[in-house]
Write a structure and sequence with these properties.
5-stranded mixed β-sheet, 4-stranded antiparallel β-sheet, 9 strands, single chain, alpha+beta
Length: 344
Amino acid sequence: MRISGQKATIVIALAAFLAGLLLGWLVIGWWLWPVEYYDTDPIDLRAEHKLAYVTMVADSYFVTHDLDQARQRLAGWPPDELAAILTNLQSEYMRQGRGSDAQRIAALARDLGITPSAQPTPPAAGTAPAPRKGILANLFAICGVLIGIAILLAAAALGWSYLQKRRGVQVAQPAAGPAPAPTAVPGAPAAPAPAAPPVSTLGTFTSTYNLGDDSFDESFAIETPSGEFLGECGMGISETLGEGTPSLVTAFEVWLFDKSDIRTVTKVLMSQYAFEDAELRTRLAPKGEAILAEPGKVFTLETSTLRVRAEIKEMVYGAGEGPEQSHFARLSVQLTAMPKRPEE
């Protein structure tokens, strides 16, 4: 059972979203590029700015005596809040000994029909000017944000690692037990021994003679797949009849040389005439075992470490000259080299 990678993708996407949200909201929005307000209404100003604005309206009204303009500039202000501001301004000016300024505030309140509050009202807690944070406080805030982002990324990495480990988990399949050994039945014939594994060949070669090739002598190197030389095999002319040309070949030597053996194994492949001629066979006997050449005939040559399987693929006797079936017009022998098993 495999865990889908969809969960890992969701975890990574969520962590990236949260990290981006914190980075954009706290660091960029509050510190690097904080929001700045433009063209806001006077009613939305902070408390000290509201006092300054109302003071400017009172000063303008004292100069122009344009009551409609003053009402327009103070439109939207709650009467209670405006009365509290005018009362606070008048009281503050009186405390500072600025009587003329206090009179301008009183004139504006009178003409607007606003009754000053009995007691000065302190600015609302929510509208008090917020103290500005120092550089050190900003640095602490940024460090806190960065630490939070690092924690989120670490959690996402741990989650990803956990899911990756779980992804490779598969439901274990019960292991098949060993096959029961066959039970011998008393009196039953013994089962045949298993056949030996096939031996890989080291090379297959074809040696072909045609009448008129008087210097015929072919050899083939036997090597391992890696190129190590092990020996040679081949076929050449062993005996001819007469002295004319082309030579009438009546016997061939098929041989095997093994570099790890001190001898070369040879077998003499004879025509029907040579095989039946006792004198000729006696003369060729020292060269090797006599083999009667026949189409499809198979014979082997063996040394201490090599074996060659020889098979006559094609054979044609010559006609016209010499005794019947005494020489070859064409002879093709396939040689298959293979390593010899140690137990053989």
